[in-house]
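Subject: Protein record for review, amino acid sequence with backbone structure tokens
How to read it: Take the token row as a discrete description of the fold.
Enclosed: The protein record, placed directly beneath this head.
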Amino acid sequence: MANVVINKLVIIGVGLIGGSFALALRKAGLVRHIVGIGRSRENLQRACDLGVIDEIAGDLALALKGADLVLLAMPVGQTGKIMAQIAPHLEAGTIVTDAGSTKQDVVAAARSFLPGHLQNFVPGHPIAGAELSGVAAASADLFRDKNLVLTPLDETSTEAVTRVTELWQGCGARVSQMRADQHDAILATMSHLPHVLAFTLMNHVCTSASDKPEELLRFAGSGFRDFTRIAGSSPEMWRDICLANREALLKQIDAYQNELTNLREMLARGDGQALEKIFADARDARQRWLKDKS
């Protein structure tokens, strides 16, 4: 990997992902100065105190002046608004990339609000995270050995893709490329649906327990804790992700509902053989997956 050092990095949304990107690049020696932009002055000051960023932006135009790279790391629902705000101040050579969990909406926003900058726009998604949010949860090793998907536009220059690829590789990520629609279909199954299920199960348990959910939860074991871990994620972020990818997610919810219906019918008729088979198939599939990962 080429040693591509960027002089000035601007991060819009200095939370778990944006903060971890900053820390990872610092650890790799690939950035000299980091400017943070965000809604909360308190969070940005925390980022400064933790050494995640060097400067809190007081003026958008000044912050973007001389920027080599801008990372959009805020909730995807804010993408269009932020792109419209930065568009007048972007310099010709500034690369813009993002970390959104959906990509078709991000690409559409770029075509609407950054039409003159598409050659330097590289949509991306680090498939890494934690149940905690905010800059205090940021880690320099968050992306190590994690997948990072880029979905470049036809207009995106090879040079911009190469530079963003090298920076994410510097963070320890495994970088690949695919179409935006392909990304959204895959993530609806592998990330968005599981989060919806975790949130829903947590709500179900708490509402089914009448006015004393703690009476049920005190009997929760490690399986319940592991299954609902991601229900600790940011509600705002996941609201935006679900709405942005709703067509693909609706298909997955419907398909999953069909699986539940089939299982319910097996249970209702007392078909132990059928239940054991679907449980065995799931166990075997998981074991093959874990073996392939190792």
User: Anything to note?
Assistant: The longest strand covers residues 6-12. Residues 92 and 184 are 29 Å apart (CA to CA). The chain has a mean pLDDT of 94. The two ends are 24 Å apart (CA to CA).
